[in-house]
């Protein structure tokens, strides 16, 4: 019973390792979508200053741009990416390849769409497996009027970067998604780092071995050895 109690405490702390990574390094938040939907405008608006070049010319953003902000106390590592499209430009294609890699590494994906234009299959992202629950759909340019075809997109957040509308709703949705998707929902007062994680895992492994030794009625010195190694890990 004492071993089970210690293991339960250790596992509870192990569950905060992802939370610790996010709190220390920021949730990697990739802003992606087709060209000219307002990705760079959204980045600038969230940052509060003009970090990325905004231009009506498609393909202006060719490389990833990273900045860190705080949203409701959660650090976000914002990544503005090149617009996804078929391009013959060699440099732009490299930027698009980097966009795909960033999507695979993301903790959160913000997919930006142009609300004033009808939806097309080529506009939409292929969200990597396992990230569906951490995928936000943003309908930008609502100041131009929303196309009727978007009426059925009830889960999308409607914003206007030009008029600074809907940003608070976006920040609330970011906080909710990260909290639901990870251990931030557990509201644990301690968040461990990678070194702690390895030590707790070692401790839990040795406690499991000690428990099995007790159940199989092995000699006490074998049990003591496992307990000592668990304690050393702690």
Shape: elongated
Oligomer: single chain
Which percent range describes the beta-strand content? 15-25%
The residue-averaged pLDDT reads 79
Give a short account of the largest sheet.
Answer: 6 strands, mixed
Strand order of the largest sheet: 2-3-1-4-5-6
What is the C-alpha radius of gyration, as a whole number of Å?
23 Å
Class from helix and strand fractions: alpha/beta
Low-confidence runs: none
**End-to-end distance:** 19 Å
Question: How many strands appear in the DSSP assignment?
Answer: 6
State the helix count.
7
- Give the SSE string: HHEHEEHEEEHHH
Helical proportion, percent range: 40-55%
Structural notes for this entry:
The chain has 234 residues and is of the alpha/beta class. The protein has helices spanning 2-14, 17-25, 39-47, 90-105, 167-181, 194-215, 220-233, and strands spanning 27-33, 65-71, 74-80, 108-114, 135-140, 157-158. Strands 2-3-1-4-5-6 form a six-stranded mixed β-sheet, with helices on both faces. Strand 2 (65-71) and strand 3 (74-80) form a beta hairpin. Helix 1 (2-14) runs antiparallel to helix 6 and helix 6 runs antiparallel to helix 7 (220-233). The two termini are 19 Å apart.
Care to give the gist of this entry?
The chain has 234 residues and is α/β, with parallel strands linked by helices.
Explain the layout of strands and helices.
Layout: H1 2-14, H2 17-25, E1 27-33, H3 39-47, E2 65-71, E3 74-80, H4 90-105, E4 108-114, E5 135-140, E6 157-158, H5 167-181, H6 194-215, H7 220-233
Parallel strand pairs: 1-3, 1-4, 4-5, 5-6
Antiparallel strand pairs: 2-3
Helix pairs in contact: 1-6, 6-7
């Amino acid at each position: 019973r004492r071993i089970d109690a210690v293991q339960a405490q250790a596992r509870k702390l192990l569950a905060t390792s992802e939370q610790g990574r996010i709190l220390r390094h920021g949730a990697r938040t990739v802003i992606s979508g087709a060209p000219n939907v307002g990705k760079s405008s959204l980045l600038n608006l969230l940052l509060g200053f003009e970090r990325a070049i905004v231009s009506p010319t498609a393909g202006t953003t060719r490389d990833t741009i990273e900045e860190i902000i705080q949203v409701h106390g959660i650090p976000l590592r914002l990544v503005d990416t090149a617009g996804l499209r078929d391009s013959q430009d060699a440099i732009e294609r490299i930027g698009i390849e980097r966009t795909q890699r960033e999507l695979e590494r993301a903790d959160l994906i913000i997919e930006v769409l142009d609300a004033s234009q009808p939806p097309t299959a080529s506009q939409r992202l292929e969200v990597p497996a396992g990230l569906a629950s951490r995928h936000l759909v943003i309908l930008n340019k609502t100041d131009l009027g929303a196309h009727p075809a978007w009426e059925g997109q009830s889960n999308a957040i409607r914003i206007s970067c030009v008029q600074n509308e809907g940003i608070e709703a976006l920040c609330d949705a970011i906080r909710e998604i990260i909290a639901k998707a990870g251990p931030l929902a557990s509201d644990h007062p301690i968040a461990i780092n990678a070194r702690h994680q390895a030590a707790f895992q070692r401790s839990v492994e040795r406690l499991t071995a000690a428990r099995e030794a007790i159940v199989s009625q092995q000699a006490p010195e074998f049990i003591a050895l496992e307990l000592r190694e668990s304690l050393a890990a702690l």
